[in-house]
């Protein structure tokens, strides 16, 4: 299958070479890889130039945006700018982070899943991060069928149906919810162990703390589901502050009547899906 990769990149001089080398080593090579240099102030652009000269599969795009590393909007805006350079002659498209090491057969396995299941909309592997002892440990705090935003691959049809990626916190949840709304499935492949070189959120701005609650509002979760999801997150993080941050973000968004990311019909589907999952987990 043919596929494109878009990599939003902001100040990744320490990790970028590892990611690009792992792409060059893939057993199934991409048609094109768009490297979006998103307002980097370190040596990132020189590394991009080096690889663009080394292999024609890499194409550079410079983008000017905020220097704040906010989750959601910054990375998706950069991705969408890279997307504009591509045509629609692909079978699946990949949003990739710039601080990863992929197994050599990563995209070959992804391709086989899309080839064998026409209803598969989103696919990816699992993220592993190094602990203080140098061991690579699975870091997947969400449900097992969730694909982390760093390594998401979308079938062409699914990507078009969901309207691409939403420029907001929660984009890597709403994409899967909308995929299911349109009748697609998602799949995480446990054979694909991706090394994540910088733990999630290490560079995030302090303003990001309440964006998760705002995202739940924008996906039309409603107060009760948001409270349940926030409590679950707080328990996993062992931090009651994350619960209050989420709820404050939700209530602020509700008070300000912020825009929703989904329609009323999609929101109803999402709430029903969430309630179904909650009942299943508690055995009702």
Notable characteristics:
Nucleotide-diphossugar_trans, glycosyltransferase activity, glycosyltransferase, transferase, alpha/beta, Spore Coat Polysaccharide Biosynthesis Protein SpsA, Chain A, Glycosyl transferase family 2, 284 residues, 9-stranded mixed β-sheet, 10 helices
Topology:
Elements: E1 3-9, H1 16-24, E2 32-38, H2 44-54, E3 58-63, H3 73-83, E4 92-96, E5 100-101, H4 106-116, E6 120-130, E7 136-138, E8 151-155, H5 156-161, H6 171-181, E9 185-196, H7 211-218, H8 223-237, H9 240-255, H10 264-282
Parallel strand pairs: 1-2, 1-4, 2-3, 6-9
Antiparallel strand pairs: 4-8, 5-9, 6-7, 6-8
Percent helix, as a range, is 40-55%
The CATH architecture of the largest domain can be given as Alpha-Beta Complex
Q: What shape does the CA trace take? A: globular
Instruction: Classify the beta-strand content into a percent band.
Output: 15-25%
Structural class, from secondary structure content? alpha/beta
CATH class of the largest domain: Alpha Beta
Number of domains: 2
What does this molecule look like?
The termini are far apart. The protein is α/β, with parallel strands linked by helices. It is built from 10 helices and 9 strands. Helix 2 (44-54) links the parallel strand 2 (32-38) and strand 3. It folds into 2 domains: 3-196, Spore Coat Polysaccharide Biosynthesis Protein SpsA, Chain A (Alpha-Beta Complex); 207-282, no CATH class. Strands 1, 2, 3, 4, 5, 6, 7, 8 and 9 form a 9-stranded mixed beta sheet that branches.
């Amino acid at each position: 299958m043919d596929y494109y990769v878009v990599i939003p990149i902001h100040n990744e001089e320490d990790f970028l070479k590892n990611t690009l080398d792992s792409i060059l080593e893939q057993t199934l090579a991409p048609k094109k890889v768009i490297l979006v240099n998103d307002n980097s102030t370190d040596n990132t652009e020189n590394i991009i130039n080096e690889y663009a000269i080394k292999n024609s599969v890499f194409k550079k795009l410079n983008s000017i945006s905020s220097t704040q590393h906010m989750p959601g909007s910054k990375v998706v805006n950069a991705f969408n700018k890279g997307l504009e350079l591509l045509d629609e002659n692909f079978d699946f498209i990949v949003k990739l982070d710039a601080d990863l090491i992929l197994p050599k057969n990563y995209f070959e396995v992804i391709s086989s899943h899309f080839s064998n299941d026409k209803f598969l909309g989103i696919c990816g592997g699992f993220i592993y991060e190094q602990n203080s002892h140098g061991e690579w440990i699975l870091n997947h705090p969400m449900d097992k069928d969730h694909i982390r935003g760093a390594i998401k691959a979308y079938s062409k049809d699914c990507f078009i149906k969901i309207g691409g990626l939403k420029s907001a916190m929660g984009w890597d949840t709403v994409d899967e919810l909308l995929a299911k709304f349109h009748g697609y499935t998602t799949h995480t492949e446990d054979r694909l162990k991706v090394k994540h070189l910088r733990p999630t959120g290490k560079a995030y701005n302090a303003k990001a703390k309440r964006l998760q609650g705002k995202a739940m509002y924008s996906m039309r979760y409603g107060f009760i589901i948001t409270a349940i999801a926030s409590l679950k997150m707080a328990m996993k993080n062992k931090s009651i502050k994350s619960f209050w941050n989420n709820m404050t973000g939700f209530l602020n968004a509700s008070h300000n009547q912020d825009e929703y990311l989904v329609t009323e019909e999609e929101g109803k589907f999402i709430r029903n899906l969430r309630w179904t999952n909650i009942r299943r987990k508690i055995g009702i």
